Structure formats: structure tokens, C-alpha cells
Amino acid sequence: MTESFRDLCPECRPSTRSGTALRPPRAIHAHSPQREGPFIGVNAGAIPPTLLESTLFGSKRGAFTDSRTDQQGLFEAARDGTFFLDEIAETSADVQIRLLRVLQEKVIMRVGDTATIPVNVRVIAATNRELKSEVDAGRFRADLYFRLAVVPITVPPLRERAEDIRILAEHFLEKHAAALGKPMTGIAPRSLEKLGAYSWPGNVRELDNVIQRAVILAEDSLIQPELLLLDHPPKGLDEALDRPFREATLAFERLYFRRLLDRTSGNKSKAAELAGIDRSVLHEHLKKL
């Protein structure tokens, strides 16, 4: 998809009034037939591999040392609701086989048990990796990939959607200022320019951390450039060299024309004039991108 999730789901946009927003998985759940059921989420990368199976699928009494009772897994807890599995690419081959069975047969089996338990649950999975590449490299099961990729939503990295940086930065400012009890009024224009020129290798989480740190360090009500302690150098040739030529070129063109349109407030005639090209040529580029 070419649209950002913010465009697909208005409820996911940060609110300048309340400072709150539904995260995409919760927004999908809230607008689905399963909305009356539970929403359960887990980060697969944050759980030790030896514990992940029992965490997801539960365990039978006696399956482990000192295991004296049956333990319910998260899939059972999410029955008739939505289960969000973040960082799915971090799962082992054994867990992937079990996940495939859940998706195909809608049943789970607790660790150490032989009986199956039916579960009716919507599964949303996320990863920061390119799963097709993981499949090609033999690190992710192809059959599970195709089961998961029913309705894929691709969120471009933050460096490719510069128009979101200010909105997100202001949302994080409001959130952290409220949490810390600091009366912040905004972000200085030069600070916004600095944020827009940065490559954001850590994506939205990094932006969140940068703003939180700036709020902590701020001595007045405005976020000044010197408070934005960025960990990596701005965009440059070194980063582009890590990508195939065509991909790097398209990424640059996409960013260039988005920034150009931002600068001209969407005026395409003015944007074409600044770029030194005919308006029809600009239209061709925008159509291609």
C-alpha cells in the first residue's frame, strides 16, 4: 500500500487535543467484528525462545519441573478476539509450525499435552524485517508467510514519510510533557528542520526517544535544536550505498518531491518551478512514485 496507516485509519492519528491515539493493531481490533472480545498483544523478540511456546500456547501440568497446574496460553486468552504478535520474524522454526496450525485449523495444543483446544482468533503479525527475503534465505517458513500475508499493510520507514515527522514529534512532545508535568509549548522551527534532515534508522521509536530526552533536558517551554541528541549522522551517500541503485534512486526521488511539496504547501506549479522542471514532468514523477 502506498498510503501510510495514518491515512488509512484516522483514529490512529495522534490527537492534538487529547494526546492519545489508537495504535494500528488496536484500531483494527476496535473496528472489527471481534471488537467485543479481548485484545492480546506480545512481542516475540522480548520473550526467551525456550519460554515462547508455552507463553503462546500454554502448558500441561507436569510439562516442566515444578509445573503443578495447567497454564493457559495467550492464544487461549485471546479467544473470540484479536491476537497481535509483534516481531514474528524472531520466532523459531518450531513456533512457526505451531502458528501455521493455529491459522489453518484454528486449534492449539498446550506444551506437553496431546489434546487440541479450538480457538477462534484474528491474528495480526508485525515485523521490521522483509519477510519475503527471510523466506528466500530459509529463515522463515514460506507456508506461514503466505498464510499471514492475506492483507499486508506496509508502513514506509520514517525517513520516507517526512510529512509525518512534525505530527509525530508534536504528539510525543505532548505525551512526555504531560507525563513529566512540564509546561512545553512547542518545537522550535530550527528543531523541526533538524528532525526532518535526519535519517531515523530507529524509525518512530527513535523519534519518541529523542523527543522524550529533549523534554527531560529542556529548561524552557520550547524544544531547541541543541536538545535533539541524534545518535547517527544525517542522510548521506554511505546510507544510499547499502541499497541497490534503483531502490536508492527511487527513495531519494520520493523524499525530494515530498519535501518540495511540503515547502510549497502542495502547490505543484511552484514546486515544478523550484525544481527547474516543467509541471507535466513533475506530474509524471509523482505518478511514478
Characterization of this structure:
With 289 residues, this protein is mainly α. It folds into three domains: 5-148, Rossmann fold (3-Layer(aba) Sandwich), CATH 3.40.50.300; 158-227, Helicase, Ruva Protein, domain 3 (Orthogonal Bundle); 237-288, Arc Repressor Mutant, subunit A (Orthogonal Bundle). Helix content is 46%, strand content 8%. The longest helix is centred in the last third of the chain and has 19 residues, at 245-263. Mean pLDDT is 82; it is low at 1-21.
Shape: globular
Average pLDDT: 82
Q: Give the tally of β-strands.
A: 7
Question: Mind summarizing the main beta sheet?
Answer: 3 strands, parallel
Q: Whole-number radius of gyration? A: 23 Å
Q: What oligomeric assembly is this protein in?
A: single chain
Distance between the termini: 12 Å
Counted up, domains total 3
